[in-house]
Structures are given as C-alpha cells and as structure tokens.
Amino acid sequence: MTLYLNVLGIVNPLGCGKDQVAENLFAGSQDGLIQNDTYIPDQSVYVGTVDTDLPVIPEKHSLHKSRNNQLAMMALQEIEADIQNLISEYGNERIAVVVGTSTSGIGSNEPAIAEKVINGTFPPDYDYQRQATSDLSQFIQNYLDISGPAMTVSTACTSGAKAVASAARWIEAGICDAAIVGGVDSLCGLTLNGFNALDSLSKGKCLPFSDNRDGINIGEGAALFVLSRQPGLVEFCGYGETSDAYHISAPSPEGLGAIKAMKLAKGDHEVAYINLHGTATQLNDAMEAKAVNELLGDHVPCSSTKSLTGHMLGAAGANELGFLWLSLIHQKLPPHIWDGKSDDALAQLKFVKPDDKLETDNKVLLSNSFAFGGNNICLAVKKASPL
After folding, report:
1. What InterPro entries has UniProt attached to this entry (predicted)?
2. Which of 87, 187, 270, 331 would you label with 294, given CA atoms 20 to 30 Å apart?
3. 16, 157, 206, 237: the active-site residue
4. Catalytic site includes residue 311
C-alpha cells in the first residue's frame, strides 16, 4: 500500500506556515534562537521560540487551553480546509488522529503547580487534563469534530516521528482511511530545568558535530500532516524503529540501533539527503556520525537543523519530516549551520553548504530521531511519481 503525506501545517522558530518556514530554513536563519532568562533560575539560555501571536482556543474547548494546543491549532488552521474535504469524503469516524508530544500543556499548568507548592492548594481553574499527554489528540479531535481513533505518542524525542509510523500501520490495517499525524511541543520550565540538571544545555547557540559542541538548545513547534492513500506530492516510503535498551539517557556508542533503523527505512532505495538528529551533545553526535558513515559513507549530503530551531523534543521528528517535505517541494536542502570546526574524533560526514541543491533521481530523503531509553526511528520520503 502506497501512502502519501498530502498536506503540511507547520509553525516553529523558523516561522509560521510553510512559506515562511521554507524561506528561513533554506537561508539557514538562526533568528528564532533567542536568549531567555525566565525558565531557569539565575540563568540565561538560548531557546527556539515561536515569537508570534497564537490563535485563541475557542471557549467551548476551554478544558484544553494551553500554549501547546495553541501551537497545534495554528498548524491545523493551515490545513483545515484540506481536512474538511477529507472528512466529506471518508466521514468523520474514519479519520484518525495520531500525534506526539512530550510536554503537552504542562507549561500552562506550571503557575498552578507552583501555587500548590507555596499555598498547599491548586487554584480553582487548575485542571490536570491540560498537562495529560492525551490532551493533544483529544483537543485536535474535538476541534475538528471527528470521531475516529485517536492516540498521543509520548516517547520523548521520537514522539512526533513515531506518531507517523503508528498511523501508517493503522491505515494499512484498515483501522482508518486517513490520519492527522505529527507532533507538538511547547517551551516550559520542566524540560529546560531537567536538561539543565543533566548538564545538557549549550552555553550559546548549539553547534552540531563541532569540536566545540557543548549541548543542546530547547525549542518549540508544531507540524501536522494528512497521511492517506490519496496521491500527493510527497510519498511516505517507510520507517525503521529499533530499541537499544542500552542506557536511560545515553545512546549506544556503536550506533547499531540507529544503523538498523536507517536500513529499515530506506529499504532498497539510494539516499539523497539525511536530516540528522544532531543534538550537539557529545554522545549523540559521535554515535550518529559513526552510524551514518558506516551505513552510507561520507558522500550523502546531511545536516542538523537543530542549530536553527533548537531541539523541539516531542515535535522534533514531525518538524524535521516537514523539512524533508519542503525540500522535496522546493528542491533545496537545509544548510548545516555551525562554526566549521570539525571534531577529528568523529566519523566524517558530508554537511550541506548554503545553496546546495537537492538531486533526488528517485532517491529517498531520511530523517533520524533518537530518544531517551534508546528508542530510535528513521522516516523515509521521496517525491511522488507523476500519475
């Protein structure tokens, strides 16, 4: 069964909507990485911020009021007309929602949690549902008034990518005819302080694969697609999912799970480009460079876009799949933005330079996502053949 990523709604630190995101993505803009001193006590860090007015959650969905769902709503509004056409064709009970998040709406509940710590009671308007991981898929379902199966995937930094793979299995099994898929995560104190406690945050703007890399920037964003059998511009070619079970927060240094995930995703196709997980941490970049080099050598163009957006955690895999979608539409590649200081201890890779063009020739584009607990996923897409 051939599946397609028919439409894309996207918002992240590169901009709002496909056009603005594409313009800044291919220009290698880091304007969305902004210093912020409100999340971590007595410390300023760079974060990837969506710096625009977000849509207001309608009052009838007040239970779901959170920044996370506002980001989701902005991405949904870009593709809402297409979704309504889909509902007209299949019926609202045959449209699934499969999305990923790691934060859900906890950022919007943090003031209430602080009040509970200080005063012993939650404020009257506190509702746990806003921070439940299920809230994202429930909000999208309620907002669109659809009644098909719904699921929120929460597997840390692979959540948004794993949602797409899960939805593909649902369509292939006949559980639904089409699915709204993707990922959404919003900035919050919990994640920033957590990564700070792990000494994983960069002191400046992150430098993936650089000899000077010192950690990640955290970002926020939303990317939502329609996945269906209806022919479109971008074909969803496959996925590979593996589990290292090596360490709770460190990747297996040999990269065997990453290699297998990429092998499964690409199948028999040649590879035109890889969007690397590329967090700019010491261990991830060493593992990923080794895995990509061992499987594909040093001639396949690749880049990490986290130096443009920050690490969007549960939304990263979906947004970076969106970058592949935009690359195929525009026949351009996202440049690898760093300081150019190679780490001689890393396996060599071919990083995309500004203005490099995409040469597909029926090759696939890959997107890697790796997460805590050693769970790995790689997604593969290509430009659809003319009918």
Report:
1. Beta-ketoacyl_synthase, Ketoacyl_synth_AS, Ketoacyl_synth_C, Ketoacyl_synth_N, PKS_Beta-ketoAc_synthase_dom, Thiolase-like
2. 331
3. 157
4. yes
User: What would the pLDDT profile of 138-186 be if each residue is shown by its tens digit?
Assistant: 999 999 999 999 999 999 999 999 999 999 999 999 999 999 999 999 9
DSSP codes joined into one string, 247-302: -SSS--TT-HHHHHHHHHHHTT--EEEEE------HHHHHHHHHHHHHHHTT-SEE
Q: With helix as H, strand as E and coil as C, how does 119-136 read? A: HCCCCCCCCHHHHCCCHH
CATH at residue 366: 3.40.47.10
- On whether the pTM is more than 0.90, the answer is yes
Q: Sheet of 33-40: strands edge to edge?
A: 33-40, 43-48, 218-219
The question of whether 299 is a catalytic residue gets the answer no
- Upper half-sphere CA count for residue 285 (Cβ side, 13 Å): 28
Q: Which two tokens stand for residue 320?
A: 């970076």
Neighbours of 138 (CB within 10 A): 18
Name the packing angle between helices 106-119 and 67-90 (round to 10°).
Answer: 140
Q: At what angle do helices 135-144 and 67-90 cross, to 10 degrees?
A: 50
The yes-or-no verdict on residue 278 having pLDDT over 70 is: yes
Q: Residue 98 pairs with which residues in a beta bridge?
A: 151, 181
Q: Number of folded domains in the chain? A: 1
Q: Is 385 helix (H, G, I), strand (E, B) or coil?
A: coil
The catalytic position among 64, 206, 311, 378 is 311
The predicted pLDDT at position 387 comes to: 60
- For residue 132, the enclosing domain spans 3-383
Q: Which listed residue (206, 277, 302, 378) is catalytic?
A: 277
